[in-house]
Each structure stands twice: as C-alpha cells, then as structure tokens.
Write a structure and sequence with these properties.
Elements lengths: L1 H16 L3 H10 L1 H41 L4 H32 L9 H47 L13
Helix pairs in contact: 1-3, 2-3, 3-4, 4-5
Length: about 180
C-alpha cells in the first residue's frame, strides 16, 4: 500500500507533464497549481479509501489465519499470541490512526505545499506513528514465520516416523479392508 500511495501521488506530476490534448485545455483553464491541487485531492481520497479497505481485509485475513493456527496446527500459545498482536496492530491502524490521518489530511488537501501548516506537521506525526505500527506488524510477522519454520524443522523427523507407523505389523494397513 505504501508503494501504491506514493506512486499514485507521483502520477499527478507525470500526468501534468504530458497531459492529453483535451485535458491540457482544462488544466490551462484551472491553472497548473490549481489543477495539481485538484488531482492530488482525488489521489488522496483514493488512497484513503484504499487504506481503509486494505486494513479491513487484513483484519479478516488475520482472523482467518488465527483460526487456522488455532485449529489446523499444533502451534502453542506463543504463536497465537503473535497472530493476535498482528491483528491488534491492524485494529489500531484502522480505528485510531487512519481516521485521524484522514480527518487531518482533508484539512490540508488544499493548503499550498509551501504554506506553513500546523495540521501538516500533525499529519506527518500521525503518519510516522502509522508506519511505526506497520513496522511492528512486519517484525511480528517475521518472528511468527521464524517460529513456524523452526517448529516445522524440529517436527519433520517425527512426522516421518508417524507416517511409517501405518505399515507396522500391529497396525491395520490403510488399503486392507
């Protein structure tokens, strides 16, 4: 999402650098600075929608993954705790940070970029908190992946032993009905 957001804002300048002939007339009527503000506003609104919906999708996928780890694996409480922390991180983003960033962002949408703005400073503080939580989520995911991989390697010999037990003399063969 970070790449999508950054790239969409870059697309405004690319569009203004080489606009369609019909758009050139419209941009000229607005003026380059006002056209840029209007296009950046549209991109900002699209990014806001994207972030809100991506966070909802992460909560749903996180819940599904939690139930998968709970019921379909032999992981202990620590792995479940890591998944819950990741879900909690997204919940903080979705219900605390993103709404604050959206409301502050809408206040600064039409403030010229070079004009001093306390709201802009406040927005970047919230933005830093958001990416701090995002980094925390990634570190939790890395810890969880490391744990799942290391647990898998420790159990791999045991799984093979359990598989070979099916054909032992004291067990009924799988095909032998």
């Amino acid at each position: 999402m970070a790449w999508v957001a950054a790239e969409s804002f870059s697309s405004v300048d690319r569009l203004l650098a080489r606009p369609h002939a019909v758009a050139t007339l419209q941009f000229r009527a607005l003026g380059r600075a006002d056209a840029r503000l209007l296009l950046r506003y549209q991109v900002a609104e699209q990014n806001r929608w994207n972030f809100e919906n991506w966070e909802v999708a992460q909560i749903v996928m996180g819940a599904l993954f939690f139930f998968f780890v709970l019921f379909a694996t032999r992981e202990n409480k620590f792995a479940l705790f890591l998944v819950l922390l990741m879900i909690a991180s997204v919940v903080v983003q979705r219900f605390l940070l993103t709404p604050a960033m959206i409301s502050i962002g809408r206040l600064i949408d039409f403030v010229p970029p070079d004009a001093p703005s306390g709201e802009r400073t406040q927005f970047w503080v919230m933005h830093s908190w958001y990416w701090g939580v995002e980094l925390t989520k990634w570190l939790l995911a890395l810890a969880l992946c490391t744990r799942l991989i290391s647990q898998r390697n420790r159990r791999s010999g045991d799984a093979r032993q359990q598989f070979n037990m099916v054909d032992k003399a004291d067990h009924r063969h799988v095909d032998g009905l």
